[in-house]
Amino acid sequence: MGKTSKDKRDIYYRKAKEQGWRARSAFKLLQIDEKFNILNNVTRAVDLCAAPGSWSQVLSRKLYLNEEINIKEPMHLFYTDAIKEALEEKPPTTPTSPPKKNESVKIVAVDLQPMSPLPGVIQIQGDITKYSTAQEIITHFEGEKSDLVICDGAPDVTGLHCMDIYIQAQLLLGALHITCNVLKTGGTFVAKIFRGKDSDLLTNQLLTLFQEVHVAKPKSSRNSSIEAFVVCQGYNPPQGFDPKLITPYLDVSNKDFSTLEGINKVIIPFIVCGDVSAYDSDTTYPLQLEGEAPYVYRAPVQPPIAPPYSFKQDPTKSDIDNFLKKIDEAAKRVGLGLGADVKDLNETVRKLSISDVNLPSSSNNVKGAAQFDLPEDFCKDDTKTKQMFDNGPYFDLITKVDKVQKPEKDNETEASVNLRTMDFKLMPDFEFLYKEDGTDPEMIQTLLQHFSMGNIVNYTTCFCPE
Amino acid sequence: MFNSLCLQTDVTCIEIIDKHVFAGIGGFLHIYQLPNNNLIKRLKIFEGQKIYGIKPNLNLSKLIIFGGKHISLTSCPQGNFEEIEKSTHHILSDWILAVKWIENDNKIATVFMHNKLTIWNKDFLKEISVKCEERCILYSAHICYDSHKELLILSGTVFSEVLLWKPLNSHENKCSPVLKRLKEHNGVIFSIDYNPDNGLICATSDDRSAVLWKMTSTNPQDIQINKLCQVYEHLARIFRCLILKECFITVGEDSLIIVWDFNGSLLRKIETHQGGAVWSLGYNKNLDVICSGGNDGAITTFRVNPKVVKDYSSLPNREIPKIVGLLRAGNMICLSEKAVLYYHDVIWQEVARYPDLQKYCILQISPCKRLFALAGFDGQIYIYRENHLINKFFLQHKSRIFAFHWLDCNRFLVTQKDGILILYFIFNNTINFIQSFIFPSSKERWPTCACALNDHIILGDRKGNIYNFKIGHESPINTQKKSHSYLGVTYLYFENNLIISLGRDGFIKRYKLSNNNLECIDSNKTKFSWLVGLENNLLLSFSGDNFVVSDFKFQRILFETKCGGGHRSWDYVTNSKSIIFSFIKQKIIHTCQLNMEDFMPKDVIEGFHVREINALKVLKLSEDYHLVISGGEDTILRLSIAQFNRIKILETFKIHLSSIRAINYYKLNINKYLLITAGGRAQIICWQIEIQDEKISCIEKCNFYESVSQEEGETRIMHLCIANIHEQLYLFAGRSDGLIKIFSISTDMNLKLENSISHSNHCISNLALIKGGVNIDLLASMATDGNLKFWSISDICYNQSNEALNFFKIHQSGITSFSYILKDDRLITLTGGDDNCISLTLFGIHKQNSFISLAKINVDQNFAIHCAQITGAFLLNGYFITSSIDQRIVISKWLYKDNEVKFSMLEKYDTAIADPQGLEAILDKRSLYLYIFGNGIECVKVNI
């Protein structure tokens, strides 16, 4: 797959890179905001499970930097008459000085993982399930409570849907737990849910804490994805509600939505965000859209930081330095007659992911299929490499000989032929030279009979005398 | 009302109990008898909840079965598994991760996802609950020991740690302290196992590694644990592990099962579930079998560590081996660097010395593995039978022999310069010249492999071309150019009058000779490269440094050995049971001998699709005998038979380049069908299915895809429709770029683009043909914009109009399912959307001359029956069925009266199929067969 193939597959992936967003999910929040205006008049906001930070980035750019973000680009593809008129009426906006920063805005981003800094965003590296984290957030707001809490966190998906949905629900409860401690009455809470088995039970119960609850699906979220977002507006906890006791309020066990009746059975409206002119994440668009600047491939804004298997990637400089240091130490120890600390040394070597010392077979030994699955244009202009990939069992022998003995040309002299023949004549047991002047017709006949001989089952059928 | 007939989906749990495999498939317990793999019992335990664990008590009279928050006790009178019955069912407050019988089967311990332990009495009444002080989400847990006093809990957290805690140590507030934290992983802990016999703990993780520890002291005050090893070989996350007496096993998302010794050395690596994740693992000591269950719904058994006889030998006199060969009985020959020929039966013996072959020598063994030839730089040839020289001679042109190939043990072919090929025939112990051929000019002008079928000689070269020569003709009769890309042809042979070629490109192609011409009849891409042999079902290949023996049918690796790659000298010989492989590495001759029976996994259930099935069609062949055609994310098209409550795979085709998203068929006559499949990369394939009694054949007829330019996106075909208009077949293909392409289908099943219409700038999600009533021929198209558009078929096929007749906004977003009933001039459509909405819409059709228009008369909608995308809809008189991602299959009742439509839900069934992508219904007298497909397949019979 070429590097542009992901660009081809998903318009939002490409647009995110073009507009400088850390991840395509930024559009999801922008589209939710477009529909529900959740960012209006927000001065204090909390982003839970923030890394890699695309939602924090939206908060930063919209609230703190006060940027006008237009997610509907003027583009011929979606020109409707109304848009066209609106565009024509508006005089082309001359680039003015950057908008004034909104210094009063405070944004707090919480995650276990570190993320690159963003203007106006305070980072807390902490666990959202801990009460101390809630307190820390409030400290940053100088005792005030937050207007908005958002959470785009998802668990490590196992692939077994029922477990993933359950864990996502637990994560939402965790986020809600901290939300109840930091959100002001009337505030808004937005969180990711997985729409699947029994998800109505969960969303239904959010109504006990919020005046209005919607399940929203932004157009930038794929039709085929089970992801959706709960948009809970007007935080209004019951009297005497203690956030620590949230679990009894939200009990999704032992119930079946269809058994709920009367007041308990309230259907949460489902809203699609993003209007007709929004891109559709399932649709295929050409890389070059009409009315846009020429398509250029862009590298991801923020490549993944430290995936769990990253230690098998290239060694860092500090790994190498560390390794050299350890080698030095080992040499000294050996010099002193102490013997090297092999265990320690091995560990540093492992970090380097040089060929293994304590690991029997390294994962560098990726399946050969991957190694040989070369693109068609691989080593197109490199004939030497190509030859190495391009030969059968006798390649080595043949090329070796070619180097040793240049193949004889036809103009070999009579004398040298004699000489060569002579060489072999010196070998006593050579009996005859084979002539190939004419073919004995009888022999052809015999050969043809040979084909019909016996019962030729397959290639390995044998005619040898026993 | 709903009766599940068969189910094939993720096998989430396996337990081998007394020579029986107990498997949790969806909410059903399946019991298979080993070693004959017969299903002896199928019992519904939960509806819609997958089973994650099965725990028998000591005398096998009771089983605890759990999954999610559900737990069930089943009884098994006199240990007779066929009589097993469900006795009680409880729903607990949290997700259950581990269960164990303790106190001599009088009590039950459960560990929950929130790091809590509960002990129950045997009537399942709660005795005590203890929380661990560390409150976080667990992905795995293991309960060690059998008495309440000794219990030790191993918890695998989301934060990469394994926690050890004892419920006995609980304080007043019932929180137990963590006794020890094992921090070796760098990601979620997916599984933990502990073997009390050897005190070993194993944990596997998101970081693709497994760690093995030894617990030397279990004293709560001073638990001593030492790390033994950390192993890396999996290519994805590791989901399960199992510690046996002498080894431990890990399985993961990469479909690999790896057996390790306790030092972390790899003992065996095997691929099982077609690239899909392995979810479950079981072991039986008495039978010495491991059993695995995976994402493809298969259950496979295999031996833990079958024997490989490895041997290393050096030549006498410190000679350096150069070329090695294997003869029929496993005897070896070897030519040394100094051109000394050695023969090995019991020991290495010198046979002859050939100083003339020291710089250059070709050694070739005949297909029957009895004869071999040595050929040199000056046209000299020596022929041996075992260790006896039977012939030696010079060719007339005493020039370099570029290649030597045996066609059989009486014929061979020699290649010299300028592409001169000479065919010789051994008759009465003399060698007879037959004729010479001219090999077409190329840079490396000699064949790499050869075989002969009657008077044809088929040759392959390094450029991937295959030439068909015939005795009596100097030049090839015909050529298959670039049959194996530029990587070259590696092996040619024949079987059942067909020629088979293997290539470095990983393809296996079959050809037939018709009218002396060589024609390719099929081409199969394997997942391996550098193929060198195929015998029975064993495919031999080189992959990087490794020699690989794999199972051709399932494309799984059975055995691998490091040999330094195919560039060095190697050979193999097979017989009915075993395979011997030898190669030279570091001046030593290595041989490995393996018994293939021991290496071959055996399927208790054969694997079906990996990941989602996107499209499925069912052909009713007779009552209760259905042909199921399915395709999905794994790009494989499968034809299977559903009968007697089971699904049996007939054929699989791996031809699609990308995922299959749409399948449709058209009945041509009583036993002939046109099948069309399409999907990613806008590829469309036409097939012909023929059904003759029990025999069903499927042949690829046309493979259509447009090459796309750099700027264009990767278009997917989302839906297909086939229409017969005045005896001409048309295909409508709805695409992800919002276009509907219309093709005419010729009688030989070729596609010709006729027209292209645009629904909107949104991805098409559904297409349907509406036929009947007062001569109505309409196409309905639906897309992610929520619009339902109607087109006149004749207009768009004959290019008369590219405008839709009418369109209606029915849903907020994508319309993902559709079904209709046409009653005279009234059209009733059932649509389900991404917006959880079921919509029953009544349209009036107005027809004046050739002008048709539609009007919406009435609609009834419901948002509460489903809570996720609705992927399947089937409308029939009075009732309709819908299916959704929320795994509910709902039957509703509907009414049409006085220009009004109304519906209400009747009953629901929770399927265990995750991510249901659709619903296919077959009506049969008073029963309805529903095929629900997604991450697996379930067939449910509904009696109305």
UniProtKB/TrEMBL annotation, chain A:
Keywords: Cytoplasm, Methyltransferase, S-adenosyl-L-methionine, Transferase, tRNA processing. The keyword Transferase applies. It is an enzyme of class 2 (transferase). GO terms for cellular component: cytoplasm. It is found in: Cytoplasm. GO terms for biological process: cytoplasmic translation; tRNA nucleoside ribose methylation. The active site is at residue 192. Residues 21-235 form the Ribosomal RNA methyltransferase FtsJ domain. It comes from the Eukaryota. Its main location: cytoplasm. It catalyses: cytidine(32)/guanosine(34) in tRNA + 2 S-adenosyl-L-methionine = 2'-O-methylcytidine(32)/2'-O-methylguanosine(34) in tRNA + 2 S-adenosyl-L-homocysteine + 2 H(+). GO terms for molecular function: tRNA (guanosine(34)-2'-O)-methyltransferase activity. Its EC number is 2.1.1.205. InterPro entries: RNA_methyltr_E_TRM7, RNA_methyltr_RlmE, RNA_MeTrfase_FtsJ_dom, rRNA-MeTfrase_E, SAM-dependent_MTases_sf. It holds the Pfam family FtsJ. S-adenosyl-L-methionine binds at residues 53, 55, 111, 127, 152. Belongs to the class I-like SAM-binding methyltransferase superfamily. RNA methyltransferase RlmE family. TRM7 subfamily. Methylates the 2'-O-ribose of nucleotides at positions 32 and 34 of the tRNA anticodon loop of substrate tRNAs. This is Putative tRNA (cytidine(32)/guanosine(34)-2'-O)-methyltransferase.
Automatic annotation (TrEMBL), chain B:
WD repeats lie at residues 182-223. GO terms for biological process: tRNA methylation. InterPro entries: tRNA_Anticodon_Mtase-Reg (IPR051973), WD40/YVTN_repeat-like_dom_sf (IPR015943), WD40_repeat_dom_sf (IPR036322), WD40_rpt (IPR001680). Its main location: cytoplasm. Keywords: Cytoplasm, Repeat, tRNA processing, WD repeat. It is found in: Cytoplasm. One of its GO terms (cellular component) is cytoplasm. Pfam families: WD40 (PF00400). SMART domains: WD40 (SM00320). Belongs to the WD repeat WDR6 family. This is tRNA (34-2'-O)-methyltransferase regulator WDR6. The lineage of its organism: Eukaryota, Metazoa, Ecdysozoa, Arthropoda, Hexapoda.
